[in-house]
Design goal:
Elements: E1 5-8, H1 41-55, H2 59-66, E2 75-76, H3 85-93, E3 96-98, E4 109-114, E5 119-123, H4 127-132, E6 144-158, E7 161-172, E8 179-182, E9 210-214, E10 220-227, E11 234-240, E12 244-251, E13 264-271, E14 280-283
Length: about 290
């Protein structure tokens, strides 16, 4: 399994290096500090197989097959493209402001429509909530300005294929096409069909908290894997079945001795033997589906 990684430290963790976070430091792993990767890989692969077998035919699998789970970014830049690198940087950093107040709406529900003909009604988010999901800053430097918004539709890749969904279409100053933000909320993730890996049963497993990108051909995933400060980074292996893709993550180069207590996120690219299609992506440690979050 070939992986390519780009180091990323969570923004809430960087200022706290050397300080153990309450209710968080190292809680994403099933091993004690300094013990990662001690167990043979076959124990971790056995856990991955256990998760895949438990998922098959489970209530969780049924719930997943009926829910709305986006597998792509819910925010889409203007179809016409950015006018300049400065505008692109403003979008990527969330340096976006609005002119005037955004309207409220009495519409509370929206319909998700799949190409198969299936539909699902989901709660609709308010325009201001949608705006805040991509507008994070108001600082000096390049910025974009929202001048209006209306309700429309867009398409998005989901766990059940491409779906047409309600979207807030935000007008940007100087642009002829809008910035689109999906307006309906995802379904709640189903509970795992089997419990979290117990201490010692698959020692050395770390969590894979989210999916960051899927290759256009579906043959590779980029996931956010976790590791600590005293190792050389994460390694993500995969067990593929017809129904699921189970990711079992470990770390390499773990070092014993004093170490700052922190959890670092890192992008890891995982190659697949077959395209993702409608298979569910599962985390071997927690046995939960891995949600998409950019």
């Amino acid at each position: 399994m070939n992986t390519q990684a780009n180091r990323r430290v969570g923004p809430l963790l960087a200022p706290l290096l050397g300080v153990c976070l309450l209710a968080g430091c190292g809680t994403d792993r099933s091993a004690d500090d300094g013990r990662a990767n001690d167990q043979p890989p076959r124990a971790q692969e056995k856990r991955a197989r256990e998760v895949a077998d438990a998922w098959h035919g489970s209530a969780a699998a049924t719930a997943w097959s009926k829910g709305y789970y986006p597998m792509a970014d819910p925010t889409r830049p203007p179809e016409s493209g950015w006018h300049s690198d400065a505008d692109k940087r403003a979008y990527e950093t969330g340096n976006i402001v609005r002119r005037g107040r955004l309207p409220t709406t009495g519409i509370t529900r929206g319909k998700v429509k799949w190409r198969s003909g299936s539909t699902l009604t989901r709660p609709l988010v308010e325009p201001n909530t949608a705006y805040q999901s991509f507008a994070h800053h108001n600082s000096a430097g390049p910025r974009l300005t929202v001048t209006g918004v209306k309700l429309g539709e867009t398409t998005i890749t989901t766990s059940r294929g491409t779906a047409t969904v309600p979207a807030w279409l935000f007008t940007l100053e100087g642009y002829d096409t809008p910035l689109e933000q999906v307006a309906v909320t995802p379904s709640s993730l189903p509970g795992p069909p089997v419990g979290r890996a117990g201490r010692g049963s698959a020692d050395g497993l770390w969590s894979v908290p989210r999916l960051a990108r899927t290759a256009p051909d579906g043959r590779a995933l980029t996931v956010r894997a976790t590791h600590g400060a005293c190792d050389d980074g994460p390694v993500v292996n995969v067990l593929e079945t017809d129904e699921s893709i189970v990711l079992y993550a470990t770390v390499t180069g773990a070092r014993s001795g004093p170490c700052t207590a922190q959890t670092i996120e890192q992008d890891v690219r995982v190659e697949l033997r077959q395209p993702l299609a409608d298979r569910v992506v599962l985390d071997a440690l927690t046995a939960r589906p891995v949600p998409y979050r950019s």
